[in-house]
Amino acid sequence: MQKYGGSSVADAAGVKRVAQRIVNTKKAGHQVVVVVSAMGDTTDELIDLANEVSPLPPARELDMLLTAGERISMAVLAMAIQNLGHEARSFTGSQAGVITDAEHGKAKIIDVTPGRIEAAIGEDAIAIVAGFQGVSQTTKDITTLGRGGSDTTAVALAVALKADVCEIYSDVDGIFTADPRIEPRARKVPRISYEETLEMAAQGAKILHLRCVEYARRYDMPIHVRSSFSEKEGTWVVKAADVAGVVSEEKEAHMEAAIITGVAHDRSQAKITVVGVPDKPGEAAAIFRAVADAQINIDMIVQNISEAKTGLTDISFTLPQGEGQTAMTALDRVRERIGFESLQYDDSVGKVSIVGAGMSSAPGISARFFEALSEAGVNIEMISTSEIRVSVVVAEAQIEAAVNAAHAAFELGSDEIEAVVYGGTGR
Amino acid sequence: MQKYGGSSVADAAGVKRVAQRIVNTKKAGHQVVVVVSAMGDTTDELIDLANEVSPLPPARELDMLLTAGERISMAVLAMAIQNLGHEARSFTGSQAGVITDAEHGKAKIIDVTPGRIEAAIGEDAIAIVAGFQGVSQTTKDITTLGRGGSDTTAVALAVALKADVCEIYSDVDGIFTADPRIEPRARKVPRISYEETLEMAAQGAKILHLRCVEYARRYDMPIHVRSSFSEKEGTWVVKAADVAGVVSEEKEAHMEAAIITGVAHDRSQAKITVVGVPDKPGEAAAIFRAVADAQINIDMIVQNISEAKTGLTDISFTLPQGEGQTAMTALDRVRERIGFESLQYDDSVGKVSIVGAGMSSAPGISARFFEALSEAGVNIEMISTSEIRVSVVVAEAQIEAAVNAAHAAFELGSDEIEAVVYGGTGR
Asked: Where do the annotations place ATP binding (chains A, B) (predicted)?
């Protein structure tokens, strides 16, 4: 199973290059099923077109429209492969048996019945499947899976077809200890556990999407994240036990490797502060109920210590910038009922996280992280932690300094700069 | 039932305009089903993309690719209608129940099972259906219907849904007595029979495609050809009896109307002459067998009178220019076996035809046509006739003069010039 992102098939030349890779894999004796995203900016162009005719395009029709993107890329890729002398057949999500619920724009896969794919590979053909799309079990309408949908399609099909591995190709060489655009000494991680990858993805690393990693973890499907522009090994995302085995062998050479795997950052956050909340039971609950009712996912929460004088407190939380306006409107509507004073909105914040499975058994990790930030002059606004992660919210202008400081503090860097290209369509 | 061609939905503004028309029809109390072509040049762009990755794109994948075009237009049109406050749902050919054979690129409709369309209109929604496409009954693969496919989809659905009329919208006001670009006095024909329309289409008039008219004729589905840019009545294509009834009323005012309906011309023809063919039984058959085996459709045939001296004759025939190379190659291959001397290829020819149901009962029509051509200095290279048509092949440079002469000779012109726009995607 191979999956190619939009940047890998951005134009005819890219399609031909990917076709050659696929044929090489086939020639090496493998059965190949390929999931492909829409070419380059196709999806954005289709969204622009939708917005030209409708300020709020209906979800069913938007799905119908957007799935044209993968239809184009998969057909063109199948043509390019056949032009190299190998049989190839393209299949829509529906034809490939990707059965979803009816939630247009963010459908969930509820079953995969890849009978036509099995028939194609049984006849020695290469199957090309449209990522990102499926068909609703109840309405029979075409659905899209939302962000990360193509990666999820690839993993789900890999599981259903009992593939050995799901290779996810983009224009990046793998998963790095930090974003190489802001940390030139970032090093490619050879192996990483599903859990660490989930934390990296949740904290803003853009290579793999949460849903796809969750799916792979549930069914223990190894993911190989690699670049379609080079032949280099990428990063293997596997179960924790498999990482530990390899890492313990490597430990003597590189002691710190096990503790922190990487530094993730996320510029897409915003912070809302609810000022002057009466400090009595149920007030915080009422605030977060209002936000939850507006379908907003909040991330970190900080409640200041109440001032004894006034009996008032401030509550801050972070959320995706795109949901900021909705949250502010929802909160403003309950202001009188809850009785808080005012709302503050700040989207010039960012989140920096260190992630590592070794963290839970190594004391002092948070302290070393915070010291490094302090020495670099970075002010910590909020903190949250999990078993294998420590995240801080900082001013957006200080993200880069925070990443660099953390990367150095945990000795994640390589001695030489590894060449990488960044991009991707986010689909 | 309404069908909108690619020129009517060339951009977002066009889509909005068409959406408003559809909503107006709905508001007038009609149930509306709409068949739509791909937007503007989308199909050509997709074909270019295919050619960039493959010199001979496989037909199954080309169909998969091209159907993305209608998927885009139908979804965007449904959005635009919903934005006007009316429920609209888009359906692919497959979802609309357009069942075809498995001949990719030129599939034939073998059944229409529009259950989902009926359900949509039953729920008072406007159904938008992708033209030009269907699904193979045997392979379940996506197929396209080839040229004229969207018009044929519209008529087939209109028949299956027992629609009152199939309105076919383009950027032309209707069917004209001649192409207004070369005959400024061309007049819109208010009514025309299926048979005359078939002849006009076969002889190069570009408004309706043969297949669609054949389908409408078989099931007696009235077609109203009109412009999406104006509110004017267009041309009604109906059964001959219905034309005759109306025309006989009009006869006193416009005596010639019944005899000739229009002048068609076709620049896409080429002429092949097989020089020096031994004049003995079976030679002509062998030549046309070779051409037929290469899947070439030939149109007119002329065999010169054999020269007694040499016992050799020349055979000329016309065919579409696009098939010229194939035919020449096929004939060259049998030259020695048949023993002809040489081949001549001429693509600077054109065909001009007069069409009219009244012709069969009116003597002297051919004579008057040929006299008019002669007076205009047009040299006739070949002639063919049917019950309701006389066609001549002339030099390409003389097409315009021939059309003008015929138009004048049969007094087809109107006194004032009717404004029309020409274009269309040929799909």
From this structure: 3-6, 181
The H helix count followed by the E strand count for chain B is 13, 20
Place of tokens 């989207």: A347
Domains in chain B, ordered, with CATH?
2-250 (3.40.1160.10)
**Crossing angle for the helix pair A194-202 and A210-219, nearest 10 degrees?**
170
Give per-residue pLDDT as tens, B123-156: 999 999 999 999 999 999 999 998 789 999 999 9
- Disruptive mutation site among A64, A92, A129, A142 for chain B (greatest number of B CBs within 10 Å): A64
Q: Say how far apart CA B189 and CA A4 lie, in whole Å.
A: 55
What are A157's two structure tokens? 């099909």
- Check CB contact under 8 Å for B58 and A12: no
- Inter-chain touch B61–A78, beta carbons under 8 Å: yes
Q: Collect all residues with Cβ–Cβ distance below 8 Å to A57 and sequence separation of at least 6.
A: A50, A51, A65, B79
- Residue B309 is predicted with a pLDDT of 72
- Tens-digit pLDDT profile for residues B237-254: 999 888 866 555 544 444
Q: How many residues appear in chain B?
A: 427
pLDDT digits (tens, 9 = 90+) for B311-364: 788 888 899 898 899 999 999 999 998 889 999 999 999 999 999 877 777 777
Rounded to 10 degrees, the C-alpha dihedral B44/B50/B53/B54 comes to -110
Degrees to nearest 5, angle at CA B98 with B18 and A52 = 25
For A291-317, b/e burial (b = at least 16 CB within 10 A) is beeeebeebbebeeeeeeeeebbbbbb
- Smallest CA–CA distance from B66 into chain A, residue: A72
Helix (H, G, I), strand (E, B) or coil at A8: coil
Q: Is B70 annotated as a binding residue?
A: yes
- Which residue in A has a C-alpha nearest to residue B50's C-alpha? A76
Q: What is the pTM of this model?
A: 0.79
Q: Which residue of A has its CA nearest to B63?
A: A75
* Residue A32: band (very low, low, confident or very high) from pLDDT cuts 50, 70, 90: very high
* Secondary-structure percent of chain A, ordered helix, strand, coil, rounded to 5: 40, 25, 40
Judging contacts by C-beta atoms under 8 Å, the chain A residues touching residue B17 are none
Among B385, B378, B210, CA closest to B299: B385
The DSSP string of A137-205 is TTT--EEE--TTHHHHHHHHHHHHTT-S-EEEEESS-S-BSS-TTT-TT--B-SEEEHHHHHHHHHTT-
Contact predicate A215/A364, CB 8 Å: no
CA dist B200 → A220, A329, B32, B180, B232 (Å): 65, 63, 29, 15, 22
**Nearest Cα to B26, choosing from B95, B85, B114?**
B85
Q: If you average pLDDT over every residue of chain B, what do you get?
A: 87
Type of residue found at A242: D
A61:B55 CB<8 A: no
> Which chain A residues touch B77 with a CB distance below 8 Å?
53
Gap between the Cα atoms of B314 and B394, Å rounded: 18
- Say what the ipTM of the complex is: 0.74
B130-150 in b/e burial notation, b at 16+ Cβ within 10 A?
bbbbbbbeeeebbbbbbbbbb
> In chain B, helix, strand, coil percent, each to 5?
40, 25, 40
Identify the CA nearest to A112 among candidates A66, A145, A89. Answer: A145
Q: What is the pLDDT of residues B83-123, one digit of tens each?
A: 999 999 999 999 999 999 999 998 999 999 999 999 999 99
C-alpha neighbours within 13 Å on the C-beta side of residue B373: 28
Cα distance between residue A70 and residue A75, in whole Å: 8
User: Given a cut of 60, is residue B257 above it in pLDDT?
Assistant: no
Nearest by CB: A57 against B53, B56, B79: B79
In Å, how far is B83's CA from the nearest CA of chain A? 6
Question: Can you tell me whether residue A118 is helix, strand or coil?
Answer: helix
